[in-house]
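Researcher: Watch the backbone:
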Amino acid sequence: MRDKIKELLYRYRHGWILSYLIIYQMWFIYVERTVTRRFHIVHTVVDDYIPFVEIFIVPYLLWFGYVALAIAWFFFKDVQDYYKLCTFLFVGMTVFLVVSTVYPNGHYLRPRVFERDNIFISLVKGLYAIDTPTNLFPSIHVYNSIGVQLAVMNSEKLKEKKWVQWGSFIMMSSIIASTMFLKQHSVFDVITGCVMALVMYTLVYGSNWQPGTKHVYEARPYREKRRYREI
């Protein structure tokens, strides 16, 4: 049993990078509690023409599973693409935290009264209760969704699976739209999220950067010497 545990720990040692999420969560909670009243207002003229549509709460909430599923799939299927995706996501998330810390921001776009009462409105009310309309740009919902889509598009293992690519594209698009139709983000937040994603794409996928050496495991009893061959 001990040998099997050691074997699994070694095989999936690339999971270390996910420890960043602990740092992110602690930092995010700090800015959420700190930025509550005094902040720079984010607003564009276009925001006033975008209606509130509660059904978009569905793709907005699916974002959590969308990103988590992508990380998990690459974690087990392609280590190099996993590192690229995590680098893309975590660098952008850090930039977001820095911006939120040095330039507190928020908006007053949320509706004060809901004209309808249905399950989607109930979900929106729950979201509003736990998520303040602050720390908005660049939108991480937008940025991470684009990051997942780029990872899917650039994956050699998924290039023949058109249904996966199109499904991811539809999910990404609906999530981006949901940030505005739920009045969670301003158009400005969406634009800055897209711009940052474009910059990170050139750095992560537009170069020959390879995050580590890929190995193929040769299964042998654990007590024997392990051998790995580079490919």
User: Anything to note?
Assistant: The helical segments are 2-11, 20-34, 57-77, 79-102, 119-130, 140-153, 162-181, 187-204. The chain has a mean pLDDT of 87. DSSP finds eight helices and four strands in the chain.
